[in-house]
Amino acid sequence: MSVHIGLMIWKEMKQRDLSSSFLANELKLSKVRTQDILNSASIDTELLMNISEILNYNFFHYYEDSKAFSKIETQSKQKSAQEIERLKHLIAEKNKMIDLKDQFIKTQTNLIGLLEKGQYI
User: Fold this and answer.
1) Domain around 41
2) Is 51 buried (19+), middle (13-18) or exposed (0-12) by CB count in 10 A?
3) Is the same domain home to 57 and 10?
4) DSSP for 58-97?
5) Same domain membership, residue 118 and residue 83
6) Both 99 and 58 in a single domain?
């Protein structure tokens, strides 16, 4: 999916009846540089973030909907799910160890009690 981000910014500005002069002033750029941005198919991410904040609009969503990001998101979710399962398994193993230690302490306490009774007889 090819995104002409300058066009998307321009369209959003037109819907709000905002001029390129307004954007130039907000960005503290020349009108020529601002017009170059609006004519550009691609843009620096920091600049896009600034424009998104100025216009209170998430222009990044045009990229999030692309197949590449969808695939990355799916892979990320799968890795997260695997990591969650691994951590659950570790927690279960740790809980088993704690139970075994508790049983060992109980057995040792009983043994000490029996030994103490034997010493005092």
Assistant:
1) 5-64
2) buried
3) yes
4) -TTHHHHTSHHHHHHHHHHHHHHHHHHHHHHHHHHHHHHH
5) yes
6) no
Q: Any idea which residue has 């998430």 for tokens? A: 58
Residue appearing with tokens 């990320």: 76
Tell me the whole-structure pTM to 2 decimals.
Answer: 0.56
Each residue of 27-80: pLDDT tens digit? Answer: 999 999 999 999 999 999 999 999 999 999 999 888 876 666 677 778 889 999
Residues 6+ away with beta carbon under 8 Å from 54: 23, 26, 27
| 99, part of any domain | yes
Residue range 44-58, pLDDT digits in tens = 999 999 999 999 999
